Amino acid sequence: MASENHPLRIGFFGGSFDPLHNGHLMLVDEALRSGKLDKLLLCPAFHAPLRSEKPLLSGEQRLEMVRSLCAELPELEGFDYEIRQARTCYTYETLLEVRRIHPGARLHLLIGNDQFQKLDQWKFNRELLQIAHLLVFSRDRTEPVPPLGIDPLPHTVMNNPLVPISSTEIRRRLLAGQSVSELVPPVIHEKLKTMTFEQTTSL
To answer: Is residue 101 part of a domain?
Structure first.
């Protein structure tokens, strides 16, 4: 609960979510149970900057899935900024929009160990670190290796509860008409059953 002495603590979790799967849900659950956040924003990317392949699902389809999941968890909120922009957005830009909507909030960026190690490739990485604290999900809470040339790196190491789930395998199954029921939350599975898909190509 936010107050004058305790600013709203907002987590931000961005990604392609192509589609949202149980690995994402487990990370979300871990972040919310940590007690570090009052609210968690899920933001599907129109097109992730470091991803070469076009998403299988459209931006609107992925946003629809995010909103369906958020409807079941009151601490979650779908954030549609990047889908509305209909272009590649850098995380720093999107976090500035979060700050505009929630002035005075403390921002926490959820990031996996793999992306943490690529932070030197992110645009505006130093500016980002000035406005957001990193929650780095690392297996067994092992201290992640920071990228070279970026110091200091304000971060908290979180336990990564993710089981190995491949988004690529989920997309392959969807294109083949095979079931993904054991890999995605039930509400997402129901949404996927109503959607059609097209083969992706590289940009």
So the answer is: yes
Chain segment 99-123, per-residue pLDDT in tens: 999 999 999 999 988 888 888 889 9
Domain count, the chain: 1
Entry pTM: 0.90
Supply the CATH number for residue 130's domain: 3.40.50.620
| Number of other residues whose CB lies within 10 A of the CB of residue 77 | 15
CA 192 to chain centre: 19
Q: 190: which 2 tokens?
A: 């129901």
Distance CA 44, CA 83 (A): 7
Q: Do the beta carbons of residue 27 and residue 161 sit within 8 Å?
A: yes
Q: What pLDDT does 89 receive?
A: 96
Cα separation values, 16 from 13, 73, 140, 145, 155, Å: 10, 20, 25, 24, 23
Q: What is the DSSP letter of 42?
A: E
Strand segments, DSSP code E, in the chain are 9-15, 39-44, 76-78, 106-112, 132-138, 155-159
Residue 165 within any structural domain of the chain: yes
Domain assignment present for residue 197? The answer is: no
Q: Are the CB atoms for 31 and 37 separated by under 8 Å?
A: yes
Name the residue range of residue 119's domain. 18-192
Within-domain flag for 108: yes
